[in-house]
Specification:
Blueprint: E1 4-5, E2 11-12, E3 24-25, E4 43-45, E5 51-52, E6 60-65, H1 73-87, E7 92-96, E8 112-113, H2 116-119, H3 139-149, E9 153-158, H4 160-176, E10 181-186, H5 202-221, E11 226-232, H6 239-248, E12 253-255, H7 269-280, E13 282-288, H8 313-327, E14 333-337, H9 350-368, E15 371-372, E16 374-379, E17 382-387, H10 388-392, H11 403-412
Parallel strand pairs: 6-7, 6-9, 9-10, 10-16, 11-13, 11-14, 12-13
Antiparallel strand pairs: 1-15, 2-5, 3-4, 4-17, 7-8, 16-17
Helix pairs in contact: 1-9, 3-4, 5-6
Length: 419
């Protein structure tokens, strides 16, 4: 739980309200009273410190956005700029373009010197004004570039691969003796980051996904024996599919990566779908992109970030359902809808915009205090400092025994398992 600090803070903060380094937030609020509490059993509370490691007048900060899009990235960029510029008086903030590629001068475009005019309206737009990409960067070249530019704090907005890259930058900068504060802001629309109650952009994506489910339900309900299949984002975790299912209340079958399922046999999905269609004349299936991978043969390799490429469960389901209904001599109309990328490309809603703002400001506070190798987390309505090493070892998943999944089962009427 220990957070690395670049050195002894020596400069007075310009902020009046500050927090102490010894304040801790427990990892869980529910504890077995018989189990002894470890002395470091808690995360360092995020927030502005009374003493700063960096003299704000000498800071040159950098911001980089990596990986897939997510509602709210521009909000984070804007709030980072405003906190550094207005609250601390940082004179220069650079935006590295096109992800980690922008840290390599041979591959990327020159960084953009951000101004108030640059960030004025970006929070009203989806995507990222800096551009993004997947894949690693040569750490030595990146640190060379940061040193040459005089950058002494870098904010990495991205998922677990981005934050692992941030950890490598910390280690290389330390080896060079360059005081570089690297602070991560966790970005994933899938909401699967450990020690973060809710990642920014998740609720916006759920709202968009729920709207798609409403439209798909109308399609299925308007024809005889209509079946709509909607594939939603969620590589390894089904939080978007679960959230959209509960928000819409129209889904009959919710399929997520955490709960394997069978298609065939009397207890399989196809038999349950047949019963539903014969009883109610329509059905709506919400499936996460990472669900049912065990049903599809063959590997698909890895992407530029090192993630396993998923096989496409959506068309596979559509083909199997069409073939099954034809074999059963049941007239049906099958609609397949894939809005995956649409749910992540929109501007953040009000609740996510507020969350983005707070993540960004706490990241600025941590960097100014000289803290490095950490990601801003959120637990129990408090923002915390999470060591990157700890974040890299765990990912959040939907628990099939949790109340949220039991709510899905009640809302859909589907069995706990298709076996």
């Amino acid at each position: 739980m220990t957070i690395t600090t670049l050195g002894e803070p020596r400069f007075d903060s310009p902020l009046r309200q500050t927090v102490r380094d010894d304040l801790r937030v427990p990892a869980t609020l529910v504890r077995d009273p018989a189990a002894p509490a470890a002395p470091d059993d808690g995360f360092e509370l995020a927030g502005p410190r009374a003493k700063l490691f960096f003299d704000p007048a000498t800071v040159r900060a950098g911001i980089v956005t990596c990986g897939g899009l997510c509602p709210g990235i521009n909000n984070v960029i804007r709030s980072l700029f405003l906190e550094l510029h207005h609250a601390y008086g940082v004179p220069e903030i650079l935006g590295f373009r096109d992800g980690y590629r922008g840290l390599d001068p041979a591959r990327g475009r020159p960084p953009l010197r951000l101004t108030a005019e640059h960030v004025d309206k970006i929070h009203t737009e989806g995507g990222t004004m800096l551009g993004t990409s997947r894949g690693p960067v040569d750490t030595a070249l990146a640190v060379d570039h940061l040193i040459a530019l005089g950058v002494n704090m870098l904010f990495t907005i991205g998922g677990d691969g981005t934050q692992r890259g941030g950890r490598d930058l910390v280690q290389e900068a330390r080896r060079r003796g360059h005081p570089l504060a690297v602070v991560g802001i966790p970005k994933t629309v899938d909401n699967d980051v450990a020690f973060v109650t809710r990642t920014f952009g998740y609720l916006t994506a759920v709202e968009q996904a729920a709207h798609m489910l409403t439209c798909a339900h109308t399609e299925a309900h308007s024809v005889r024996n209509g079946v709509s299949i909607v594939k939603l984002m969620g590589r390894d975790a089904g939080f978007i599919t679960v959230g959209a299912t509960l928000a819409s209340q129209d889904v009959n079958f919710c399929l997520i990566p955490e709960v394997p399922f069978r298609l065939d046999g009397p207890g399989g999905l196809l038999a349950a779908l047949k019963k539903r269609v014969l009883d109610r004349n329509h059905a709506l299936i919400a499936v996460a992109e990472g669900a049912g991978q065990e049903l599809l043969a063959g590997g698909a390799g890895t992407d530029a970030s090192g993630n396993a490429k998923l096989k496409d469960i959506g068309p596979f389901l559509r083909e199997r359902i069409e073939a099954y209904f034809k074999a059963e001599k049941i007239e049906s109309t099958i609609r397949y809808i894939d809005p995956s990328y649409l749910v992540r490309s929109v501007p953040a809603d009000a609740e996510d915009a507020i969350l983005c703002d707070q993540f960004a400001r706490h990241a600025a506070h941590a960097a100014m205090a000289g803290k490095t190798g950490l990601v801003i987390g959120q637990l129990h309505d408090e923002f915390v400092h999470v060591p990157i090493e700890l974040l890299a070892t765990q990912r959040k998943r939907v628990d099939p025994e949790s109340p949220i999944w039991r709510s899905v089962l009640s809302a859909t009427g589907q069995p706990a398992r298709f076996v």
